[in-house]
Design brief:
149 residues; 29% helix; alpha+beta; two-stranded antiparallel ribbon; 5 strands; 3-stranded antiparallel sheet; single chain
């Protein structure tokens, strides 16, 4: 794993390793240095997260009662302010559907930082956070409808 002990790694210690890693998996047209600087900022943000982290997920559903809360998946994001038309298109949600914002709280050690970093390199504009296990009903703080078809 790239960040086996995420808390113990400083970005400066890993700069060479991180640049090589970016070069090996990047798919965007951005140069390695631009991706590195953006990623460095994200890693610093991840390192400063509190021990209990609030994450968000959008779910399209006919109504709130049809959302399966026993298995909400592993893909989340940190900032609900990121919800834009471009964001909705990137995750294949149409404004013609009812959209619900699921707010969860999980322990920071339940975030899969390796997968999160990899996806941030491959898809730098998505800001996706991956959990290490499926989120269940016990993690849900709220589910609210944010857009109606």
């Amino acid at each position: 794993m790239f960040f086996e002990n995420f808390e113990e790694h400083s970005i400066l210690f890993n700069e060479i390793k991180l640049r090589k890693f970016i070069e090996s998996i990047k798919t965007s047209d951005q140069d390695v240095e631009t991706i590195f600087q953006n990623l460095k900022s994200k890693i610093e943000e991840y390192q400063s997260l509190p021990q209990i982290v609030t994450l968000y997920r959008l779910i399209a559903a006919p109504n709130k009662d049809t959302i399966r809360t026993d298995n909400l998946g592993k893909h989340y994001f940190l900032h609900p302010s990121n919800i834009t038309d471009d964001f909705l298109n990137s995750i294949s949600i149409s404004r013609h559907e009812k959209i619900f914002l699921v707010e969860i709280q999980i322990s920071k050690n339940k975030i899969n930082f390796d997968r999160t970093i990899q996806q941030n390199i491959i898809f730098p504009n998505e800001d996706e956070i991956f959990t290490s296990e499926f989120v269940t009903q016990s993690n849900i703080k709220s589910i609210s409808e944010i857009m109606t078809k």
